[in-house]
Amino acid sequence: MIRPLWIEVDLGALKSNFQTIRKLVEPKTKIVVTVKQSAYGHGMIPVAQTLAAAGADFFGVGSIEEAIQLRENKIKQPILTLSAVFDKFAEYFIRYNVRPTVVDLSFAARLNKEAAKKKRIVPVHVKVDTGMGRLGLYYSDAYDFIYELAKFKNLYLEGIYTHFPAADTEREFTNSQIDTFNKFIKELEEKGITFKFHHCANSIGIVDYPESHFNMVRPGLILYGIKPSAKINLSFKPVLSLKSKIIFVKQIKKGMGVSYARVYVAKKPTQIATVAAGYADGYPWALSNRAKVTIKDSYFPLAGRVCMDHIMVDIGSRNDIKVGDEVVLIGQKKGLKISAEDLAQWAGTIPYEIVSGLSSHIPRVYKHPRG
Ligand SMILES: *Cc1c(COP(=O)(O)O)cnc(C)c1O
Q1: Which of 33, 118, 191, 365, by CA, is between 20 and 30 Å from 303?
Q2: Is 260 in the active site?
Q3: Mean pLDDT in residue range 44-65
């Protein structure tokens, strides 16, 4: 690493967050750890290996490619893809022993045909919509679809699930989704259609809606130590830090501008440190003139706009800060803390986008758990 920009991933914190989730749900409840999009930017394989060792029951991925990557790295647990896949790729689910999310009959028919050819029974999870408006038929339109699915001889209806769009902001709506899902499952049971697993809880569901746990939950954000809502009072530990170094320091005079569009103008003589991180690394441009970083024992403000691969920081009159000093963009050190939630708030976005948007070209350095 010559350009000084890296991500530190604390796998011990990840393991501890998994254990916290384990305690929040009933012992019989299965945990699907969500590792899609490079485990929210943390790096899928080391994260998956740590969670497998910690006792994860299932892995949730966003694509069949991610599932194959897990298999090629010796992850043995059941894997569920949480998105829809074109019919022509149905065969991969059999070849790599991966559970698909089924949302339409043509995919199911293709999968059933491929499974029959290989004399296999493929477990699938059916997704229904109870208010997200995304994948899956709206539940009231889904009965016939599920009756048809139940006829396929080589598919096993292992799971049924739904997803919350607004569990952090709309309690009544979310409770009514849980009710609807319960009734839906009961009606199917009355028709003789049962599923081994029922699931709907994402992170916020797990921490804030115990009645949404059923017998399977799907945590993402809280695994990575990020809170889905500021109100939550649980101690999840941040897993990711983003760090860089100062590559240049100079004095500027009162009235001089810093960076593009000169939105930052020095009110008095000061020193500006240039740091090797920018928006092409996933440090959002929207943080321009708003974010803070930590250097040594203090917070310092960004000066002006975020550039493609640089930011500038106003370090005032500090004469102990020099080229080569470490700069923490996300992370905690000496009682100072900058979280992904802080960056999201400053940038007007959500912490999911902050961590998953960190460029894959940034080297990840893994700190392994003890024991
Ligand atoms: C990503 C994802 C999750 C995890 O959501 P968090 O809010 O990060 O806990 C759960 N379910 C589905 C279907 C997902 O795609």
Answers
A1: 365
A2: yes
A3: 98
Q: Which of 224, 256, 274 is the last residue of a domain?
A: 224
Tell me which of 30, 36, 127, 245 is the catalytic residue.
36
Any catalytic annotation for residue 36?
yes
Ligand 1 centroid to 226 CA: how many Å? Answer: 13
Residue 51's domain comprises 11-224
Q: Is the CB of 202 under 6 A from ligand 1?
A: yes
Strands (E), the chain: 5-10, 30-34, 58-61, 79-81, 101-102, 122-129, 137-138, 155-161, 197-201, 216-217, 240-252, 257-258, 264-265, 270-275, 292-295, 298-301, 311-316, 326-333, 336-338, 364-367
CA of 32 to the centre of ligand 1 (A): 10
The residues that bridge with 32 in the sheet, in sequence order, are 58
SS3 351: helix
Work out the pLDDT band at 371, boundaries 50, 70, 90: low
Give me the half-sphere count of Cα atoms (radius 13 Å) on the Cβ side of residue 257: 6
Q: Is 220 in the pocket of ligand 1 (CB under 6 A)?
A: yes
Compute, in angstroms, the gap from residue 204 CA to the centroid of ligand 1: 10
Map residue 234 onto helix, strand or coil: coil
Residue pLDDT, tens place only, 262-297: 999 999 999 999 999 999 999 999 999 999 999 999
Q: Are residues 51 and 173 in the same domain?
A: yes
Q: What is the pLDDT of residue 70?
A: 98
Q: Check which CATH number belongs to the domain holding 303 and give it.
A: 2.40.37.10
Strands 137-138 and 122-129, sheet pairing: parallel
On whether both 63 and 130 belong to a single domain, the answer is yes
- Check residue 360 and report its DSSP letter: T
- C-beta of 228 in contact with ligand 1 (< 6 A): yes
pTM attached to this predicted model: 0.96
**Of all atoms in ligand 1, which is nearest to the CA of residue 203?**
9
CB of 163 closer than 6 angstroms to any ligand 1 atom: yes
